[in-house]
Design goal:
The chain folds into three domains: 168 residues, Efflux pump adaptor protein, beta barrel domain (Elongation Factor Tu (Ef-tu), domain 3, Beta Barrel), CATH 2.40.30.170; 60 residues, OB fold (Dihydrolipoamide Acetyltransferase, E2P), CATH 2.40.50; 124 residues. Helices cover 37% and strands 37% of the residues. It has three helices and 19 strands. The strands form two sheets. A six-stranded antiparallel beta barrel has the order 3-10-13-12-11-14. A four-stranded antiparallel β-sheet has the order 7-6-4-9. Strand 16 and strand 17 form a beta hairpin. It is elongated, with a radius of gyration of 51 Å. It starts with 6 loop residues before the first helix and ends with a strand.
Amino acid sequence: MDRPVAANIRRGRVVKRVIWIIGILMVLVTAIVILRNSLKTSISRDRLRLAVAEEGNIESTLTASGEIIPAFEQVLTCPIQANIEEVLVNVGEEIQAGQAVLALEKAATLLAYDRKKDQMELRKNNIRKLNIQLKQNLDDLIVQDSIKAIRIKSLKNERDTEIQLIEMGGGVPSDLEKIKLDLQIAELEKRQLESKIETEKASIQAQLREEEIQIDIESHDLKDLERKLQLADIQAKRRGVLTWVNDKIGASVNEGEVLARIADLESFKVLGTCSDLYADQLRTGMPVIVNVNDIRLNGLISNIRPTIENNIMTFEVQLKEDNHPSLRPNMKAEVFVVTASKENTVRVENGPAFNGRPRQYIFILNGEQAERREVEIGLTNFDYVEITRNIQAGETVIISDLSDYERLPNLKIK
């Protein structure tokens, strides 16, 4: 028969098992700690991005988005009310200066032009008739004035003769008084007539001047209508590419309505947009760096539009190389507005290590060790970061993201 195992033997076996389990767990924990510490205190050099601190210039920038647009765009508008008769150029085609774009139906305007021309000729004829009539009226008054002058001269002769007769004793005093009265009346009538002649002359000048002004007005209207008829031959004023055209044949268009847009593709500008939070920092004339397909172009802010829509403000950038061969309409671009700059400062290539805080820790490479160092950050842009304290030109900086190791004073580089 089997004998029961003694209690002390069972306890010994249990103790041995517990000791083995504890020993295995301790070995596992020690291995994990050693492995973890090994991972936390070292890193492969192949995983790191390095940059050498150097002295140079740096510019602080704010980032905006941009779109390449033609520097000049010709907008062709309708000079008269008309109907679209024919579209002569398709959208996207290159067009030369003086080339016709649209043909408009101009019959109604031509009829109005002829009617206006006839009205002006009629008014000129009326002026000639008025001039003849007024001259005749003036001539009649002048003749009447001459008759009055003869009548006055005759009365004066009669007066002198009557005075002589009275002196010789043969005249009658009452006849002399009557002659004097008739002479006085004739002189008054002549003065009245002379005044009427002067008034008539002034009236003639005023009426003729009024008619001349009316003719000038109608003449200007006629010339304006003639100019509009010439402009109705919708032509490009400069070389470019047709970007839009009203191609609705037969549609009625009003005066001033846009008919076509022609872009000058020989020069470009940038239409930039950014948050209105930067409104107090933007000024016309500020330097701008435009990045288009890894090509950097310099420019200046030429205009800031006054309106803000959906918290977005818009500005225009005039490029120094506005005819760069890589520029195309509607291309997207990165726009960096330079808000400040420094010369001969210590700078490091920008990278993930820099988190935007004014003070932070970075690692400086020294042989097979990386030393953690607290530095102060100055100006930043998309290329460089200025370090104002605790670094010298020539030192090698790890610009990879090492935030997992930022509590370690040193880091081993494998």
